[in-house]
Amino acid sequence: GVATVPEIYAASGNCHVYVDRGADLDKAVAIAVNAKVHRPGVCNAAETLLVHSGVAGEFLPRALTALREEGVELRVDARTRALVGAGLQEGLRDATDEDYATEFLALILAVSVVDSCEEAIAHIAAYGSGHSEAIVTEDLGASQLFQRTVDAACVYINASTRFTDGAEFGMGAEIGNSTQKLHARGPIGLRELCTFKYVVVGDGHVRS
């Protein structure tokens, strides 16, 4: 049935890590691996890795090797496949639109090469669920564009999506993560479930 009271939608997480042209690649590898493998069956795990073409040739062989060592199945676009060495070709699957739209909740990661921060943002807008999105970059302009433009409850700059959690945010135990905009967004604890009551204490005040 349809709810007759307002709902808070604690939603699915089709989360992305975008490695920008300005990324520190050591940070990027660590973040991509952590976001995918730390706990793959939870809503703040990354499901797609987006990589700027300017660093893809250097970054992808490193990252995909590290991910594969953790047992991750990789579903990649043609540009990714062309940029990794022969030793990494075995076991790569071709990514489909359905893969980019899927919250795998497993050791499976979709990968795509993009030509700009704007293209990464457009991909996230098309496929993301508004949960947690990360950019890895040392470029202030790119990070500001990403944080300003990406529509998600939690946006990370040079950090793993795995931090989206009430306890990690210092909010105590949580009951879920809201991807909507009213009234609670992101981790929901007891405080976020409460509404306001205004108590006004006067001393004979009247309004004129």
Describe this structure in words.
The protein is built from eight helices and nine strands. The protein is of the alpha/beta class and 208 residues long. The strands form two sheets. A seven-stranded parallel β-sheet has the order 4-3-5-2-1-6-7, with helices on both faces. Strands 8-9 form a two-stranded antiparallel sheet. Strand 1 (15-19), helix 1 and strand 2 (46-52) form a beta-alpha-beta unit. The longest helix is centred in the N-terminal third of the chain and has 17 residues, at 53-69. The model has no long low-confidence stretch (mean pLDDT 95).
Give the key terms:
single chain; 208 residues; alpha/beta; seven-stranded parallel beta sheet; two-stranded antiparallel ribbon; 8 helices; 9 strands; 33% helix
What secondary-structure arrangement, pairings included, does this model have?
Blueprint: E1 15-19, H1 25-37, E2 46-52, H2 53-69, E3 73-76, H3 78-83, H4 86-89, E4 93-94, H5 97-100, E5 108-114, H6 117-127, E6 132-136, H7 140-149, E7 154-157, E8 176-178, E9 186-188, H8 190-193
Parallel strand pairs: 1-2, 1-6, 2-5, 3-4, 3-5, 6-7
Antiparallel strand pairs: 8-9
Strand order in space, largest sheet? 4-3-5-2-1-6-7
Strand content: 15-25%
Radius of gyration: 20 Å
Q: What ranges have pLDDT less than 50 throughout 5 or more consecutive residues?
A: none
Count of β-strands: 9
From the spread of the alpha carbons, the general shape counts as elongated
Distance between termini?
A: 49 Å
User: What is the H/E string?
Assistant: EHEHEHHEHEHEHEEEH
Question: What's the multimeric state?
Answer: single chain
- Helix content bin: 25-40%
Structural class: alpha/beta
The largest β sheet comes out as: 7 strands, parallel
Mean pLDDT: 95
Count of DSSP H/I helices: 8
